[in-house]
């Protein structure tokens, strides 16, 4: 007797099997792509957070150091205090220990040292910020230098003057680090009242501040800051320092290529500048 097959026999045809496998493959591929996108997005977000955290940290260090800048004067000796000045020019004179350039700044501060955060007391020490190479580690980026204050080697760049210096790399892959300085000059101006003279203050942003030696009578410390012939206000700290900082953009995302990982331009006032910029014109001339 012949056996008849049921018409509703269960099972997959070859075409149905191929379609099922293709659908599973597509779903698997989409899942893998989704996971990779999630991982890359998380990594990119973490990298951005780290970069902005570094920017914030550098900004805090700059602000703290500049806020605590002190108008420290150094007496010229047989050893030059500045490599650009010869011994005869500075001997017996005083120099304001501040040197500002577009790509670096050096000054004396009382802010706490980054390499000695547990110190309970602060003391005068020299700091400098610049974009370049850390001679201790070979890293390049924003470098902070902290060194004990030395009357004979202040603000010098010789190997001997930097023997006790600590070099700290604040950030690598830096695209730009620039400084500008707000100078205020006091000049005599005509007064509305007959027989009297007034003082006019003129401010300007400059890229470089180089202090020059001056004679000092020793009668009063304040006389160092008063205007002298042809040198109004040259012996005082800048009123403020503008800092521009930008990190290199190493993102692989095309939409992120033009995004600037930069610290907004920050204008940091020097607290002592507000005090030591006063009375740049001698009192006798003001009352005239």
UniProtKB/TrEMBL annotation:
Ranges where the record places region Disordered: 246-265
Top-level division of the source organism's lineage: Bacteria
Keywords, ordered alphabetically: Membrane, Transmembrane, Transmembrane helix
InterPro entries, A to Z: N_methyl_site
Listed transmembrane segments: 12-33
Record field: compositional bias (Acidic residues): 250-259
Name of the protein this chain belongs to: Type II secretion system protein
Lineage: Bacteria, Pseudomonadati, Nitrospinota/Tectimicrobiota group, Nitrospinota, Nitrospinia
């Amino acid at each position: 007797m012949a056996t008849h097959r049921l018409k509703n026999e269960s099972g997959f045809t070859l075409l149905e099997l191929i379609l099922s496998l293709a659908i599973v493959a597509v779903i698997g591929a989409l899942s893998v792509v989704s996971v990779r996108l999630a991982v890359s997005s998380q990594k990119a977000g973490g990298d951005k957070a780290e970069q902005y955290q570094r920017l914030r940290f550098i900004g805090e260090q700059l602000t703290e150091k500049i806020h605590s800048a002190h108008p420290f004067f150094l007496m010229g000796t047989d050893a030059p205090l500045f490599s650009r000045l010869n011994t005869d020019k500075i001997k017996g004179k005083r120099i304001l220990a501040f040197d500002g350039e577009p790509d670096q700044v050096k000054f004396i501060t009382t802010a706490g040292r980054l390499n000695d955060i547990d110190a309970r007391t602060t003391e005068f020490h020299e700091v400098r910020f610049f974009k370049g190479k850390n001679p201790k580690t070979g890293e390049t980026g924003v470098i902070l230098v902290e060194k004990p204050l030395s009357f004979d080697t202040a603000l010098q760049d010789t190997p001997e003057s930097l023997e006790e210096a600590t070099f700290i790399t604040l950030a690598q892959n830096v695209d730009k680090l620039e400084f500008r300085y707000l100078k205020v000059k006091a000049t005599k101006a005509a007064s509305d009242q007959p027989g009297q003279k007034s003082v006019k203050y003129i401010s300007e942003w400059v890229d470089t501040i180089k202090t020059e030696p001056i004679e000092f009578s020793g009668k009063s410390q304040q006389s160092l800051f008063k205007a002298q012939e042809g040198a109004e206000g040259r012996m005082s700290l800048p009123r403020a320092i503008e800092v521009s900082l930008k990190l290199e953009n190493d993102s692989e995302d095309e939409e992120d290529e033009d995004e600037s990982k930069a610290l907004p331009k920050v204008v940091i006032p020097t607290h002592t500048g507000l005090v030591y910029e006063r009375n740049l014109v001698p009192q006798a001339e003001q009352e005239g």
